[in-house]
């Protein structure tokens, strides 16, 4: 395929439209990846798109910049990706490393502290629902949310753990999966994990 050299961190697809986030912004293809174009305007001045996710109406991007001041969660109407109409919807100035959406909620993981934030109004208002060390978030249409917490700097705690919520992050239950490295949820709510 026609991708340029770079570190590609996120991929989203619908039909023949592909969008990828990388260390220089975002590229899109309208022909199944044969040709690629830069998305301009970018998601603000953010130069690194770590995560892409969509609901029925919007494509959301988790963005950071070299100085960690131009990040945040951005959105673009799916009908306006080519050419894009981007808008900052929350967590301005925060470096975002993962995002997920499901059951009318949007979740974002910040890169600085690993905190998890939730929005239930499309990104206008955000509440912190988990305070620390999260590296990944996953959701299902049924409302199940899972996060992967990485405690490797804290030698007295289990190195990685998965927490699950069935109430959009109001409360969390730790799973018994040993040494998880990734987490995903099926549309029906079944939790899957890669382990060491």
What does this structure look like?
It is a single chain. This protein is mainly β. It has no helices and 18 strands. A 4-stranded antiparallel β-sheet has the order 1-2-3-4, with no helix packed on it. The chain has a 4-stranded antiparallel β-sheet with strand order 5-6-7-8, with no helix packed on it. Strand 2 and strand 3 form a beta hairpin.
Sheet with most strands? 4 strands, antiparallel
Class by SSE composition: mainly beta
By oligomeric state, this entry counts as single chain
Gyration radius, to the nearest Å? 16 Å
Strand segment count: 18
Strand content: over 45%
Mean pLDDT over the full residue set: 82
**Element order, helices and strands?**
EEEEEEEEEEEEEEEEEE
Calculate the terminal CA-CA distance, rounded to whole Å.
32 Å
Number of helices: 0
The stretches of 5 or more residues where confidence is low (pLDDT under 50) are: none
Percent range of helical residues: under 10%
Task: For the largest sheet, list the strands in their spatial order.
Answer: 1-2-3-4
